[in-house]
């Protein structure tokens, strides 16, 4: 049974550590601002989805107990690909400079844990509002997210006992997951983004595309 780690003991839950490390390290992008950002973003998403699918299927090939050991590495590698995808999509819309850990968490995990990530990013009409929160609050949010994600990915543990067919199923599932992340990311960065500071006032705004 997965337990929620305390803020002082983040390493007690491997999902917590994996998610926290992924969302708090925003990678740079060499992707230039594009005159047709949506079309370019869709190409970026498709490539990332194929990479994610290949990683997941390949890591799922070992069956039985050995396969169980590859679940967390599989997810970490897949999330790294998707994290770079988020950064590249933001860049092609000209909004990579405002890509924060809150936005990263929202883009990567909104489709599976919207009620949790909406604590820091919320859609208001045709724009998105980003709430910058203190470290301890963000850590608590990642704790809740890690529990939800560990429950959602239970199927990957089960599939490790089914050679070949399990790998194909996991690859197809990973492709779909990456496409959902991509759809969220494109929707976010194609709209105006406003960043709320700790006093509840609007600070930075996304540049016009």
Describe this structure in words.
The protein is built from eight helices and four strands, in the order H-H-H-H-H-E-E-H-H-H-E-E. It has one domain. Strand 3 (192-196) and strand 4 (202-205) form a beta hairpin. A four-stranded mixed sheet has the order 1-2-3-4. The protein has 209 residues and is α+β, with helices and mostly antiparallel strands. The longest helix is centred in the C-terminal third of the chain and has 25 residues, at 165-189. It has helices at residues 14-23, 37-59, 64-68, 71-92, 101-117, 135-152, 154-159, 165-189; strands spanning 121-124, 127-131, 192-196, 202-205. Residues 1-8 have low confidence and may be disordered. The radius of gyration is 17 Å and the shape is globular. Helix 2 (37-59) packs antiparallel against helix 4 (71-92).
């Amino acid at each position: 049974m997965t337990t929620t780690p305390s803020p002082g003991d983040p390493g007690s839950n491997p999902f917590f550590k994996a998610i926290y490390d992924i969302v708090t390290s925003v990678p740079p992008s060499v992707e230039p601002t594009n005159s047709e950002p949506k079309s370019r973003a869709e190409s970026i998403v498709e490539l990332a989805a194929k990479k994610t699918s290949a990683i997941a299927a390949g890591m799922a090939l070992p069956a039985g107990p050995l396969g169980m050991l590859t679940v967390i590495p599989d997810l970490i590698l897949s999330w790294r690909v998707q994290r770079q995808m988020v950064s590249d999509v933001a860049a092609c819309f000209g909004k990579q400079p405002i890509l924060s850990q809150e936005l990263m968490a929202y883009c990567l995990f909104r489709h599976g844990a919207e009620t949790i990530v909406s604590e820091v990013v919320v859609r208001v009409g045709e724009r998105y509002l980003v709430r910058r929160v203190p470290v301890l609050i963000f850590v608590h949010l990642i704790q809740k997210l890690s529990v939800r994600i560990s429950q959602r990915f239970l199927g990957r543990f089960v599939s490790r006992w089914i050679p070949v067919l399990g790998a194909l199923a996991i690859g197809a599932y990973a492709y779909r997951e990456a496409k959902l992340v991509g759809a969220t990311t494109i929707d976010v960065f194609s709209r105006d983004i406003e960043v709320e500071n700790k006093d509840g006032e609007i600070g930075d705004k996304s540049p016009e595309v």
